[in-house]
Specification:
Layout lengths: L5 H8 L17 E4 L2 E7 L2 E2 L2 E2 L4 E2 L2 E2 L1 H22 L7 E12 L7 H16 L6 E7 L8 E9 L1
Parallel strand pairs: 5-6, 7-8
Antiparallel strand pairs: 1-2, 2-9, 3-4, 7-9
Protein name: RidA family protein
InterPro entries: Endoribo_LPSP/chorism_mut-like, RutC-like_sf
Amino acid sequence: MTGAGRIEARLRELGIALPEPAAPLANYVPYTMDNGLVVVSGQIPLREGRIAYTGKLGAGVSVEDGQAAARLCFVNVLAQLHAACGGDLDRVRRVMRLGGFIAAPPEFTEHARVMNGASDLAVEVFGDAGRHARSTIGVPSLPGNAAVEVEGLFAIS
């Protein structure tokens, strides 16, 4: 099912085409839903089935590439959310929370700037409803050597 609402129009304006939702890599589901909330499992920066940004921030991956990776992760979060909403992203009432995991060595401290790639896109897509609570955590590694992973919690109608 494909919605033709305001959020899909906004994605077109931004030049974003949602990919097919990625299949889980292990024993989990891509999202869960209950009582008007959707939790989307962590999404890595996949593009056309391949991890587009690998390595560690501050050790070969720039903050700008990290921001692009976080943005791509959020696009993949949106693909899962689109599926959860039956193809109608206009059902999203609010982005409640985003969680970001940034692969980096201990001396890296720009995690928040990296995660802004996802947060900024949430606001670009959903406007004020895209403003959210957030956690950003540095980690030593991520699946597939991905540079960034993003998860989300959304309120839907």
